[in-house]
Design goal:
Shape: globular
Bound molecules: pyridoxal-5'-phosphate
Structural class: alpha/beta
Strand content: 5-15%
CATH class of the largest domain: Alpha Beta
Largest sheet: 7 strands, mixed
CATH superfamily of the largest domain: Type I PLP-dependent aspartate aminotransferase-like (Major domain)
Number of strands: 14
CATH topology of the largest domain: Aspartate Aminotransferase, domain 2
Order of helices and strands: HHEHHEHEHEHEHEEEHHHEEEHEEEH
Distance between the termini: 44 Å
Oligomer: single chain
CATH architecture of the largest domain: 3-Layer(aba) Sandwich
């Protein structure tokens, strides 16, 4: 780092994003098979775009909205939280944000003081690690139990708690593992949090993408957790709206104004046009969500079938949710995942994400996204078979 550059310690502690680095390198390769983005390939459904267009035409989007989000949108969110998450909410407990990412950043900023420890069941979404660092907090990685589908290690979490621990931050369904934490595990996690007066910040971005009879459970639905949970959600994955940048959080009416103090300097408000699109998403037919889920189930099954044919190279846990999976690399070459993924990109023309991007417990793995077409998966795996087997 150039010493003349006046960069804060907190930003210097953040490493370059391996995900963005792989994207950059992938652009240099012609006709790459691309499995490294957690971004739906489908476009936003037409009725949602129409909602935004109508709002533009009616002159509704040129100004800021209320900083906490449009009242009409928050009212619809309250209904959704009751219907799908079993969370009893009031509009005063909702904050509309610039995606789930800004919701989590604002929540972490509101809760974490410099030096506070945040427990991250790991491997975990790389951005969560950065969100803790940027608040000058300390990420504490507690490995999940890989051979039980990357389930929560509750004893490990209890052991990791110190007087400096302030919060637990997790995503379920999980990025990068595809794990869906079970209601029983989350009820025990709630007990641990309450016993130690910890905040639990959730990232429920993939709440609608669960398979094989698994159920998404929101820890914020446990009445005793009301004061200790900040639950973060988004429209971006559910409705293929990543570029619109709109999400929201639920917390108590005492906490929301505090989180708002962090939200305003970062965003003022979520984009007004996107809030109208989100309103159309909630009010319209939910058939598109079913269709996305059915597509991801097909692509997950295809990816698992193709991985079975490479079982001397990779061992995997079948993902129960999200559209991501996290195979372990069995060959000695794969123990340094960053070098392995770059080599796969250059030599097999397949773009994946190195496991190390998801914390130290992610090493010797790679992340594969199945939010792509079946053709893309077949193209990638034809190349991997050719590269490893023939
Ligand atoms: C676990 C998780 N949370 C949040 C996000 C981003 O959500 P948003 O677009 O709502 O900010 C992602 C995107 O990859 C993700 O994987």
């Amino acid at each position: 780092m150039d010493r003349n550059l006046r960069i804060s310690e907190r930003v210097q502690r953040i490493e370059k994003s391996a995900i963005h680095e792989m994207t950059r390198l992938s652009k240099e390769i012609e006709d790459v098979a691309f499995l490294s983005w957690a971004k739906p390939t489908s476009d936003t459904p037409e009725h949602i775009k129409a909602g935004a267009i109508a709002a533009i035409k009616n002159g509704l989007v040129g100004g800021y909205s209320e900083t906490a989000g449009l009242l009409e949108l928050r009212e619809e969110i309250v209904k959704k939280l009751k219907r799908d998450n079993n969370i009893d909410a009031d509009v005063s407990e909702i904050l509309v944000t610039v995606g789930a990412i800004e919701a989590i950043s604002a929540a972490v900023m509101a809760v974490i003081d410099p030096g506070d420890e945040v427990i991250l069941p790991s491997p975990t979404y790389s951005t969560h690690i950065r969100q803790v660092l940027i608040a000058s907090g300390k990420p504490v990685f507690v490995p999940t139990v890989e051979d039980k589908g990357f389930s929560l290690n509750l004893d490990g979490i209890e052991k990791a708690i110190t007087p400096k621990t302030k919060a637990i931050l997790y995503c379920s369904p999980a990025n990068p593992t595809g794990a869906v934490f079970k209601e029983k595990e989350l009820r025990r996690l709630a007990e641990v949090a309450l016993k130690n007066n910890l905040m639990v910040i959730t990232d429920e971005a993939y709440e609608y993408f669960v398979y094989d009879g698994n159920k998404h459970f929101s820890i914020g639905s446990i009445p005793e957790m009301k004061r200790n949970a900040i639950s973060c959600f988004t429209f971006t994955k559910t409705y293929a709206m990543t570029g619109w940048r709109v999400g929201y959080l639920h917390a108590t009416k005492e906490l929301v104004p505090q989180i708002l103090k962090a939200h305003i300097p970062f965003a003022i408000c979520a984009p007004a046009v996107s809030q109208y699109a989100a309103l159309a998403a909630l009010k319209g037919s939910q058939e598109c969500v079913t269709q996305f889920r059915e597509h991801y189930l097909r692509t997950r099954n295809l990816m698992c079938d193709r991985l079975d044919r490479l079982n001397s190279i990779f061992a995997y846990q079948k993902p129960s949710g999200s559209y991501l999976m996290f195979p372990k690399i069995l060959i000695p070459d794969g123990q340094d995942s960053a070098t392995f993924c770059k080599k796969l990109l250059r030599e097999a023309k397949v773009s994946t994400t190195p496991g190390i991007a998801f914390g130290p417990t992610g090493e010797a793995h790679l992340r594969l996204s199945f939010c792509v077409t079946e053709d893309e998966i077949n193209k990638a795996f034809d190349r991997l078979e050719e590269y490893f087997i023939s």
